[in-house]
Design brief:
Layout lengths: L2 H28 L6 H29 L2 H23 L6
Length: 96
């Protein structure tokens, strides 16, 4: 893996995060009633923070005990599960 591919990967990761974070906050703020808005926003912030703390640790453990290929397989499985979950939720979400 070249240094250029690492920079390109981080660039796209950063751009995608910049584009997605406002939409995640909007959905967390607009979905609940006013009484539960703070709870939803807190849960959204907590889940993002936990992902930044827990996932690097889990990823390094998967690499240490298995391989990078296993990490990619786990990532793809999680992506598929998340995508299917969003497909089910899409019909229940109000149009903003």
């Amino acid at each position: 893996v070249s240094l250029t591919s690492c920079f390109v990967s981080i660039f796209f990761l950063s751009i995608s995060e910049i584009l997605v974070m406002p939409f995640m906050a909007t959905i967390a703020a607009e979905r609940p009633s006013k009484a539960y808005r703070g709870s939803y926003m807190g849960l959204q912030g907590l889940s993002v923070s936990m992902a930044f703390v827990i996932m690097p640790y889990l990823a390094t453990r998967i690499i240490e005990y298995h391989s990078f290929s296993t990490l990619w397989v786990v990532n793809v499985i999680m992506l598929i599960i998340g995508s299917v979950g969003f497909l089910f939720l899409k019909n229940k979400m109000p149009v903003l």
